[in-house]
Amino acid sequence: xxxxxxxxxxxxxxxxxxxxxxxxxxxxxxxxxxxxxxxxxxxxxxxxxxxxxxxxxxxxxxxxxxxxxxxxxxxxxxxxxxxxxxxxxxxxxxxxxxxxxxxxxxxxxxxxxxxxxxxxxxxxxxxxxxxxxxxxxxxxxxxxxxxxxxxxxxxxxxxxxxxxxxxxxxxxxx
Length: 174
Prior knowledge:
Distance between the termini: 92 Å
Radius of gyration: 31 Å
Strand content: under 5%
Structural class: mainly alpha
């Protein structure tokens, strides 16, 4: 029988171990390790299997790598795009001239597209990290601007109050 599960369950009981004092004293437990490829986990009573692997190499899949892995990804993508462009033009030429090579051209085009897809997927995590970094930097800049304005307002207010005090002291002394 399936267990009764709430749509919005309470957090696990061990969240109490992560107090400010425990974090400051470094006595809080380490966060759990990421779920490895092939492991199962439970969320809201439903069991899931981690079948997504981000570090799959084309060679491990038996696919030929058409770009130099040491090159910058942008350069590799340009190379693959140029190769795809050439491949499609030669494919169009072979439609009229040489129909025997069409299947070979389709396989070559497929291989180029697989390489391009793999290259894009390899760098999605880096793009996501960069996006989060950029968002955090913009938030920091906004907070800095707000704090600078607040400090300037306080400074202006203090200068005004100082001028008023000086003026009142002069009036009292005269």
